[in-house]
Amino acid sequence: MRTEPEPLLSEKPSGDGFRERVLQVVAMIPRGNVTTYGRIAEWLGRPRNARQVGGALSRSPDARRYPCHRVVDRNGNLSGGWAFGHPDIMRQMLLDEGVSFLPDGRVDLAECLWEPEP
Question: How does pLDDT run across 36-50, given as a tens digit for each residue?
Answer without folding.
Answer: 999 999 999 999 999
